[in-house]
Design brief:
By secondary structure, this protein is an alpha/beta fold. The chain is built from 14 helices and 11 strands. The strands form 3 sheets. The protein has a 7-stranded mixed β-sheet, with helices on both faces. It has a two-stranded antiparallel ribbon with strand order 6-7. It is globular and about 65 Å long. The chain binds pyridoxal-5'-phosphate.
Length: 365
Amino acid sequence: MSGPVIPQADPARRLNRFRPHVEAAMRGVLASGRLLLGPETEVFEAEFATQLGVGHVVAVSSGADALTLALVAGGAVAGDEVIVPSLTAVPTAGAVRQAGCVPRFVDIDPVTRNIDPACIAAAITPRTTALVPVHLHGFPAAMSEILALARRHNLLVIEDCAQAHDADIAGKKLGGFGHAAAFSFYPTKNLGAMGDAGAVATNDPAIAARVRRLRSQGFDADGSVAEIGGTRRMDEVQAAILRVLLPHLPQATAERRRLAEQYRAALAGLPVGLPPRDSGAVYHQFAVLVEDRDRVRAAMARDGVLTGIHYTPGIHRQPAYAAPGIHLPATDHACARLLSLPIQPEVAEGHVPLITETLARSLGS
Ligand SMILES: *Cc1c(COP(=O)(O)O)cnc(C)c1O
């Protein structure tokens, strides 16, 4: 191998792109002396709510915690069954477990790679109380079918928006479709902090109020403790950094969409499965389906192009979550073939020809 290595993602490069502003934000927090639940958190919540077009945002410690708190605040209780896709990041299922609930894994639609509404219907039991659709790789899940099913069966819907900041369906931002939504600001996400951070978005003031209590040991504004909570706050430094990056999110989305178009043009004619076309997608990942994926991936790495796998295996095959007797053929098929090409703008800009030539060579080798 010769020449520079193209990483699959590099969140530090994004922070460095805005470095003077990031440093000023951190200095501001230091000077203020307010480290938790201060003005940066409050203003970030208001700014992100405006960007999403939702009534309330509550900033918390991570995306997984946002999911857990949204489920609990929405009324899920221990022992409830919660329907989730298996093709997702482990925290989707981990958060369900942390809420005391039981994840029920269902298959994907092989075209959208998102949870298949037809499979949801088949998985509903008398103990099912909630549903967590994931907008995988930044592609909107089939929300109109999902919401219709949820209404019919009286299910709580918590959107997993960890990969879907700024994505929309017909102009309406994801995060405003379910009863509540969970966002992650893990550094590699489309909007990423300098450490762990997350948020719950909702139009329901009761859910917002309960998440506020649960994130901070159950305290109400009057200082009384009405229920038992945890320590799941976002800190002021992360909020201040997110306030620097949030105004640039629409531009970052446009850059990702442009890179995706470059990939589509460059990959036409190659034996790879492309992601679906969806004008509301924000391309957290640009994942192609390739045969002999692990060999192709290793060949690309030898040529200096690093790729990712999001995800393998499906969570239903992870030892801690193993669900005997469950058969998810579309998930298994995708998990064996998905390969995420670099699409973070700070990493991929200007390199699509090189990346796709490397992929083409690796397919043939
Ligand atoms: C990143 C991610 C999460 C969890 O976010 P953390 O902030 O890392 O806890 C949940 N769901 C999906 C789909 C994710 O990609």
